[in-house]
């Protein structure tokens, strides 16, 4: 068949080999944990979050490199192709994230190409953060393996600073009217976070409340949210919808936290509409 079609066709192996080379070329060196840990004098809750994220990223990228090198040798005929290598080759060919990577990664519904672009963005955020460990002026919450850890760190650092018991703290979410480009410094308390989308409704920036979504706007992005810790007795739950935050559209096991958002309508309306916040639409 190949002979008849004029020899200019790209074989399956060639295509997979090309993908392997591309990914290998773009994957950076792993984070040098010893060096990173020696940079820091005081291990604040945020610094520990950064350490954990770097370690998780190493765990994922090292497996990606290992499996790709192995497959590369298999394609060259220097190693016998195993069933694991076949699964990897199939996934790469079909633009799917290979199962061995998914096990070590964060929940995602993207195809391989978009997933890898997303991974590179996460790596860049971490590289920036781990150079000086200053909390970014606006944090990309979706870029974390474990977004809960950052939210918990916000409560821990406020509790420590004000000498309050951690179990009496909760999170207050103030939705700003700005986008991430408008911020150059981190807030005095808590963190600014961006990269959150809403499903089932939209956020009205002018009125600062949840509104019904517009046609064809499936996942309208939220403005930057200032998340800070307050004591539970200061929490005002009037006219609030307890909005769950999930990592992906699958919801369920990807639950992260519940944010209280202002509403003029009864909260039940949004519960019935299944309104939620997502880190990845």
TrEMBL record:
GO molecular function terms noted in the UniProt entry: dynein intermediate chain binding; dynein light intermediate chain binding
Gene Ontology CC entries for this record: dynein complex
Superkingdom per UniProt: Eukaryota
GO terms, biological process: microtubule-based movement
Dynein heavy chain C-terminal domain residues: 5-279
A Pfam family hit: Dynein_C
UniProt name for this protein: Dynein beta chain, ciliary
Taxon lineage: Eukaryota, Metazoa, Ecdysozoa, Arthropoda, Hexapoda
């Amino acid at each position: 068949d190949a002979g008849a079609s004029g020899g200019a066709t790209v074989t399956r192996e060639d295509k997979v080999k090309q993908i392997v080379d591309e990914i290998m070329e773009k994957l950076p060196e792993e984070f040098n944990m010893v060096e990173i840990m020696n940079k820091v004098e005081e291990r604040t809750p945020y610094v520990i979050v950064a350490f954990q994220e770097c370690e998780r990223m190493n765990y994922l990228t090292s497996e990606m490199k290992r499996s790709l090198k192995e497959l590369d040798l298999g394609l060259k005929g220097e190693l016998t192709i195993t069933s694991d290598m076949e699964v990897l080759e199939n996934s790469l060919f079909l633009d799917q994230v290979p199962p061995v990577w998914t096990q070590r990664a964060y929940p995602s519904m993207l195809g391989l190409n978009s997933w890898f672009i997303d991974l590179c963005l996460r790596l860049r955020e971490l590289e920036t953060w781990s150079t000086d460990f200053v909390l970014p002026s606006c944090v990309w919450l979706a870029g974390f393996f474990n977004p809960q850890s950052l939210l918990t760190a916000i409560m821990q650092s406020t509790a420590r600073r004000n000498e309050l018991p951690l179990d009496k703290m909760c999170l207050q979410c103030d939705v700003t009217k700005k986008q991430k480009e408008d911020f150059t410094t981190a807030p005095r308390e808590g963190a600014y976070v961006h990269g959150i989308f809403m499903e089932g409704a939209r956020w009205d920036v002018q009125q600062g409340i949840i509104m019904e979504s517009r046609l064809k706007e499936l996942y309208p992005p939220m403005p930057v949210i200032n998340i800070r810790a307050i004591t539970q007795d200061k929490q005002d739950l009037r006219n609030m919808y307890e909005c769950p935050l999930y990592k992906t559209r699958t919801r369920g096991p990807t639950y992260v936290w519940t944010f209280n958002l202002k509403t003029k309508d009864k909260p039940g309306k949004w519960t019935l509409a299944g309104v939620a916040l997502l880190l990845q639409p």
